[in-house]
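We store chain and fold; example below:
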Amino acid sequence: MNSKAWMQREASPSASPGPCRWTVDVVRETRGFLALRDEWRSLSERGRMSVFNTWEWLFGWHLQLGGRRRLFLLTVRDESGVLAGVLPLSLEERRWGGVRLKWLRWLGDEGVGSDYLDALLRPGDEAALADVLADALERVQHEWDILELSDVEETSPTVALLEASCRARGWNLERTGRNRCPYEVFEAGERFDTFLARTARADNFVRRRKWLERQAGFSLTRAEKPEELARALPEFFRLHELRWGARSGLCAPDVQAFHQAVVPLLSAAGKVRIYLLSVGGRAVASVYALRHGRTFSYYNAGYDPEWKSRSVGLVLVGETFRDALAEGFSEYDFLRGVEAYKSDWARQLRTTVRLRIARPMSLGDWVMRAQALEQTARGVFREVRTRVGEKYPRGVQLTRDVWAVVRPDLRWGG
């Protein structure tokens, strides 16, 4: 059975009127997701898609971390049968205030820091494809209560197109800010020395780099092949935990299992590299980098705190910038988080947003309104507690007691 025949059985195809007829299917099983690999790869290489929207990243997440959710991949094909759009969703049932809700959410939106999640839309057809996908969501409205799309780049065409589709259909849309992501755009043909001169830590980088070079057993290694990555990934985990301790989400066994599964997939597509800086034959700093299109992304890092005074993290980050420039990338992205060290290298910021959508007067709509009310009440009580506590310390317990009584009533359906 070929993949297309299976998908057509999975959901009844529908066509939209217009100059091009689109066929929409819902892929609900892992084998259907697997069958999309080559077409998905081709589509994700076009336009400006993030590495977190690649088939490798999302398929790995589905296998390792998507156990509570059911696949719900909306695919759109043109009249020639070519894959033109994908809305990579998953369906999860959750309880809120005693009510069972059906949530449609991005694949990959939990546990692994995926930024810039988005619909895959063929360049030039974005508006038509977004409208077709919105129609498809309307036709299956009995299957979901809330559509939640987290960590979409604020300037993505998907945001504006979805907002327009919601207005046209009378759906309620809630938009909230999520993360800020520092990044740097390189000038055409820019050399590392020129770039370094305009950063805040140029002198320190050069001085620390020279000192490290003089140490016995100093080396910089770049792991890209599967066998190299199999050795480098445990070292990255070790150094990351040394730096951040158990409070880092990367230390969770299921998250590490995800990376152990997804790194070979990314390696086969040439999209991952793990850096190790070693002294005396022992790794003391590591960077986990992702590469897709024209963007070099700093995913995460770690270092041995005993080497902090020697700025091993600074030196290794500098070396990743050197490689990004030498290999012709046009952009270096630090992804989420505005830690101070990132501002030493990057001057620009992107913002991601969360969109939540529900049909008016539906169960999802009522829950979204109740959650907004609860959030507002939390802010009010927090402010009251702060002001009362400044003058009357015993009053803090009073506001806590009042909140304990009021909060259950705010949970609609509780």
Remarks:
- The longest strand covers residues 83-96.
- Residues 363-391 form the longest helix (29 residues).
- Residues 1-17, 409-414 have pLDDT under 50 and may be disordered.
- Residues 367-404 form one domain.
